[in-house]
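A.,

Following up on our hallway conversation. C-alpha cells first:
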C-alpha cells in the first residue's frame, strides 16, 4: 500500500504521538509498504520511509496567546501553521491511505476534494483522544474519516456504531525496552535513594504537581520528572518548597528512555485518563512497578498485578507508592508476559490488516 503519515511534530519533536506513529510507519515501510511521512522536521539518514518537510511554528511560541475556538491550545496554533505548509506538499492521488491523529486542520487538509480518481482512505488515530470522533460541538461537527483506529477498548465501544473502527494499542521496541542496570550517574540521580519516575509533559492534565505532593512524605525517595511544558516554573517552585534536594527535572531523547527507566525504582503516572500511555508498556517492559490511577482502561494495558489506586486520595496513593517501592526490592519480581502484546511488529500487522480491509467505495465527505 501507498501510505502517508502526517503530523506537525514528526522529526521535530519526540512526544508520545510522534514516537508511536513513526514507529508504525517505520515498521510498515520495513515490511513492504510504500510509506511517506510529512512533518516539520528534517529527513534522517536512516529513515526507512520517504520524508517530506512541511514547516510549522513551535507551540511554545503560542503559550501566551488567547485560547478561543477552534484555537483551544498552543497545540492547535502550531497545527494551523503546519496545515498551511502540508496543503502545498500533499498530493492525494499519490496515496491509498493517509493517517494522522491531529485535528482539526491536518485532518481537513488530508480530506480535501480532488478532481478525478478515488480519494485515499482517511485514517484517524485516537492518540490524543476521541473528541473529534464523538463530539458534534463546534469544529468537531466537521470531523470525518474512513477508518478510526481506537487506542483503547473504551474508544472502540463509543465509536463502533458510527465509524469503521478497530482497537489497536501503541507498541514498544522489545529489543530496547527491557530490564537493565541503568545509569544513575549519567542522569545525575542519587545512588543512595529510591527513584520515583514520571515521564510526562508539564501540563495540567498530567497532574505532575499532585505526583510531587504524593512523593514528598516518602523521605528516602528522589522524584524525577522527564518532560517539559507550560507549567515548568510552577513545578520548579513547588519542588523547591516540598522536595528540596530530592527533585530532578530533565528531558531525554527517545534513545535514552530505556536507560532512564532502568535507572528508576518505580514508575508513577497521575493522569486520570489517557487515550493510551506509551509510557506504561515501556516502564512495564523495563521491570518497573507501576503506580497509576485505577481505571478499566489502564488495567487493560498493565493487567491486575500493578499498583493502581485512586490517585486523588492522598492516603491511597501514598500506600500504593510504598507497596510499589517494596515490590521493586523483590528479587523474584518478573517482567509481565503482557509486554509481548505490544511489539511494534504485531501493531503494524494490525494496522495493515485494518487499512487493507476497509471498503474502497464510500460516500464522499
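Then the amino acids I'd put at each of the 365 positions:
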Amino acid at each position: 500500500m501507498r501510505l502517508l503519515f502526517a503530523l506537525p511534530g514528526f522529526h521535530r519533536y519526540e512526544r508520545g504521538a510522534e514516537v508511536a506513529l513513526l514507529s508504525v510507519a517505520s515498521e510498515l515501510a520495513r515490511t513492504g509498504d510504500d510509506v511517506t511521512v510529512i512533518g516539520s522536521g528534517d529527513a534522517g539518514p536512516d529513515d526507512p520511509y520517504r520524508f517530506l518537510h512541511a514547516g510549522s511554528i513551535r507551540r511554545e511560541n503560542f503559550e501566551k496567546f488567547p485560547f478561543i475556538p477552534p484555537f483551544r491550545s498552543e497545540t492547535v496554533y502550531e497545527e494551523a501553521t503546519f496545515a498551511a505548509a502540508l496543503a502545498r506538499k500533499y498530493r492525494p492521488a499519490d496515496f491509498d491511505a493517509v493517517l494522522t491523529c491531529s485535528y482539526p486542520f491536518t485532518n481537513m487538509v488530508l480530506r480535501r476534494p480532488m478532481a478525478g480518481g478515488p480519494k485515499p482512505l482517511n485514517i484517524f488515530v485516537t492518540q490524543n483522544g476521541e473528541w473529534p470522533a464523538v463530539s458534534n460541538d463546534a469544529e468537531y461537527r466537521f470531523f470525518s474519516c474512513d477508518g478510526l483506529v481506537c487506542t483503547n477498548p473504551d474508544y472502540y465501544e463509543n465509536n463502533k456504531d458510527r465509524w469503521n473502527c478497530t482497537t489497536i494499542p501503541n507498541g514498544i521496541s522489545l529489543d530496547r525496552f527491557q530490564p537493565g542496570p541503568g545509569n544513575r550517574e549519567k542522569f545525575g540521580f542519587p545512588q543512595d535513594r529510591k527513584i520515583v519516575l514520571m515521564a510526562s509533559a508539564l501540563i495540567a492534565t498530567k497532574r505532575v504537581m499532585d505526583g510531587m505532593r504524593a512523593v514528598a512524605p516518602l523521605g528516602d525517595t528522589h522524584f524525577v520528572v522527564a518532560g517539559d511544558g507550560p507549567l515548568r516554573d510552577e513545578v520548579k517552585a513547588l519542588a523547591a518548597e516540598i522536595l528540596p534536594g530530592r527533585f530532578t527535572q530533565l528531558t531525554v531523547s527517545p534513545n535514552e528512555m530505556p536507560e532512564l527507566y532502568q535507572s528508576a525504582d518505580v514508575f508513577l503516572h497521575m493522569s486520570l485518563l489517557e487515550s493510551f500511555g506509551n509510557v506504561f508498556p515501556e516502564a512495564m517492559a523495563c521491570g518497573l512497578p507501576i503506580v497509576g490511577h485505577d481505571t478499566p482502561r489502564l488495567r487493560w494495558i498493565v493487567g491486575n498485578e500493578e499498583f493502581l489506586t485512586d490517585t486523588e486520595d492522598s492516603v491511597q496513593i501514598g500506600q500504593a507508592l510504598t507497596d510499589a517501592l517494596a515490590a521493586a526490592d523483590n528479587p523474584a519480581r518478573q517482567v509481565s508476559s503482557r509486554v509481548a502484546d505490544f511489539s511494534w511488529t504485531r501493531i503494524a500487522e494490525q494496522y495493515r490488516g485494518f487499512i487493507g480491509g476497509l471498503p474502497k467505495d464510500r460516500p464522499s465527505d
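The first strand starts at residue 2 and ends at 6. Curious whether your intuition agrees with the design.

B.
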